[in-house]
Automatic annotation (TrEMBL):
Matches recorded under Gene3D superfamilies: P-loop containing nucleotide triphosphate hydrolases
Organism this protein belongs to: Actinacidiphila paucisporea
GO CC annotations on file: plasma membrane
MF terms in GO: ATP binding; ATP hydrolysis activity; transmembrane transporter activity
Chain ranges of the ABC transporter domain: 8-231
Name of the molecule in the record: Putative ABC transport system ATP-binding protein
Record's keyword terms, sorted: ATP-binding, Nucleotide-binding
Length: 231
């Protein structure tokens, strides 16, 4: 394995909120690697630190201790996350209410400086690839929970990232809708050829992915699945 195979490398990464006796440790010294092509689930109950860990891997939060780096991705510096190469599917509603589906899907490209017409064409293509082109002109308030999550996945697909991080993407959905959203997510990642990390409290979702890590009270437990212990 070369360093280019390791897309994100967390070494003893910790995250503490607050100071003194009221400080809350959300993540205790997590060591975690994501390699090209990985399909990883991080399983644990609500409040176990899964979302915080995902935010550290995405570079959305800085560790209070240890480090997170992205050796296999193009970064402006060792301390900066390559946000253009990481796609995040957030837990819960993440669409802008005033924008329709195609505008929401195109938004990250527009913010990155892609001309609006080109961004919308790429967004339309992603919606078509995921079988939801018919939703293009609907507003978020007109979508079901499952439809909104599929649009969030289409938005990630439009960015063509090399690493996709999904935070409880099926957490608020019924079983049938959850299964469909996970199908869509895995298909989208396969189309991209990207690595995938999903946080979930649902063991049925976790079993869909080859590598499983458990998290309890902010601590990662030894991995299960096709990959041996990470160094």
């Amino acid at each position: 394995m070369t360093s280019a195979d390791v897309l994100v490398d967390a070494r003893d990464a910790a995250r503490t909120y607050g100071r003194g006796p009221t400080a809350v440790v959300a993540v205790h010294g997590a060591t975690f690697q994501v390699r090209a092509g990985d399909r990883t689930a991080v399983v644990g109950p609500s409040g176990s630190g899964k979302s915080t860990l995902l935010h550290l891997l995405a570079g959305l939060e800085r560790p209070s201790g240890g480090r997170v780096s992205w050796p296999g991705l193009d970064t402006p510096s060792a301390e900066s996350a390559p946000i253009h190469q990481i796609g995040v599917v957030f837990q819960g509603p993440s669409l802008i209410p005033a924008l329709d589906v195609v505008e929401n899907t195109a938004l990250p490209l527009v913010l990155a400086g892609v001309p609006e017409g080109q961004a919308q064409r790429r967004a339309q293509a992603s919606l078509h690839d995921l079988g939801i082109a018919g939703l293009a002109r609907r507003l978020p308030e007109e979508l079901s929970g499952g439809q909104a999550q599929r649009v969030a996945i289409a938005r990630v697909l439009t960015q063509s990232p090399r690493l996709v991080l999904a935070d409880e993407p099926s957490g608020h959905l019924d079983r049938a809708t959850a299964d469909h959203v996970i199908d869509v997510l895995i298909s989208a990642v396969d189309m991209l050829g990207a690595a995938l990390v999903v946080t979930t409290h649902d063991h049925a979702v976790a079993r869909r992915l080859a590598i499983r890590r458990e998290m309890h009270e902010g601590r990662l437990i030894a991995p299960h699945g096709t990959q041996g212990p990470q160094s």
